[in-house]
Amino acid sequence: MSVAMMPCVINTTNEIRKMKNKKNKAGRAFVSGLLLAMSCHATAQVEGAPTASEQPTPQEQTAPATGNSIPVVLTDKIHQINKILESTTAVHQYEFTAVRGQNVLIATPDHRYNQTWRLEYQVDGGEWQAKRHNGAEKISGLNADSQVNIRILATEGARFDSVDYSVVFGSYPHMRYDLHNEEGFLPIPHGRTTPAFLGFVR
Hints:
Elements: H1 6-48, E1 61-62, E2 72-74, E3 78-85, E4 91-98, E5 104-107, E6 117-123, E7 129-130, E8 136-139, E9 146-154, E10 163-171, E11 174-179, E12 182-187
């Protein structure tokens, strides 16, 4: 190879290296942009996802997690709530509006009820009342848009790091019937459901 051709070969080699570096940088930028776009899309999906209280199911639905001070607003359905009370000072609150003035069910199907945790309920901003047993309780005589609130808290003197609790809360289960072209509306009879606490309480 002649001496005169060497600068040209060196320049060509340098150009190839520069092109490779540009391709690598462009490739890295493309991959970074793609990853950023994917993470933004995933974030948007999580933020836009409906909460459990917005996902209807035929009979019951799971309520979302709750904090110590902000009540969880539940939809006009029956809700199965299975959560963990984080400490003896934690308080979980839930709100339900009886939009049609319908009966409201509060049930605590847990054998540990009143041993480690307890429930209090309030109707239309009135006095908080203790739920005394773990069976089903019916709140009736409500007006349209009456608000029923419940709160879950530790029993007096209870000691635990955390405790599970289970509550059923919301619109009282019912059935519609059509007898000789005459429509009717009845509560579901007690003992005819699984679980039994969904049945009618006299």
